[in-house]
């Protein structure tokens, strides 16, 4: 999916991806840009899974994504007792 963003009269295409975000009530499905995915993961201390592979938030900018890519943002798990 592409969204149009007008910047001083120029039209740029920004690719958005379908992302599942897990939360206390289940999950939400939203459309996000790479930057939004990265920022959400950093702010929440969350884990990002791209096609079921754990990817750090900083790697999102470099990972190959397409419209068929499975993207999930999950709360980070902390072990211990």
Q: What is the topological layout?
A:
Elements: E1 2-7, E2 10-15, E3 17-23, E4 26-32, H1 34-44, E5 47-50, E6 53-55, E7 71-74
Parallel strand pairs: 3-7
Antiparallel strand pairs: 1-2, 3-4, 5-6, 5-7
Structural write-up:
By secondary structure, the chain is mainly beta. It has a single domain (2-7, 16-74), classed as Ubiquitin-like (UB roll). It contains one helix and seven strands. It has one helix at residues 34-44; strands at 2-7, 10-15, 17-23, 26-32, 47-50, 53-55, 71-74. Strands 4-3-7-5-6 form a five-stranded mixed beta sheet, covered by helices on one side. 10% of the residues are buried.
Q: Which features does this protein show?
A:
single chain, 81 residues, mainly beta, Ubiquitin-like (UB roll), two-stranded antiparallel ribbon, 14% helix, disordered N terminus
Give a short overview:
This protein has one helix at 34-44; strands at residues 2-7, 10-15, 17-23, 26-32, 47-50, 53-55, 71-74.
- The overall strand count is 7
**Share in helix:** 10-25%
Determine the strand fraction and express it as a percent band: over 45%
The SSE string, one letter per element, is EEEEHEEE
Question: Mind telling me the CATH class?
Answer: Alpha Beta
Shape: globular
Number of domains: 1
Query: Which stretches are poorly predicted, pLDDT < 50 over at least 5 residues?
Result: 2-6
Query: Which architecture per CATH?
Result: Roll
Could you state the oligomeric state of the chains shown? single chain
Mean pLDDT: 83
Please report the number of helical segments: 1
Most strands sheet: 5 strands, mixed
CATH topology: Ubiquitin-like (UB roll)
Strand order of the largest sheet: 4-3-7-5-6
What is the C-alpha radius of gyration, as a whole number of Å? Answer: 14 Å
């Amino acid at each position: 999916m592409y969204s149009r963003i007008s910047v001083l009269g120029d039209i740029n295409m920004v690719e958005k991806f379908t992302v599942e975000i897990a939360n206390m009530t289940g999950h939400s499905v939203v459309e996000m840009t790479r930057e939004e995915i990265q920022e959400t993961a950093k702010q929440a201390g969350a884990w990002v899974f791209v096609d079921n592979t754990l990817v750090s938030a900083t790697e999102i900018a470099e990972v190959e994504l397409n419209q068929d890519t499975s993207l999930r943002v999950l709360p980070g798990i902390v072990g211990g007792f």
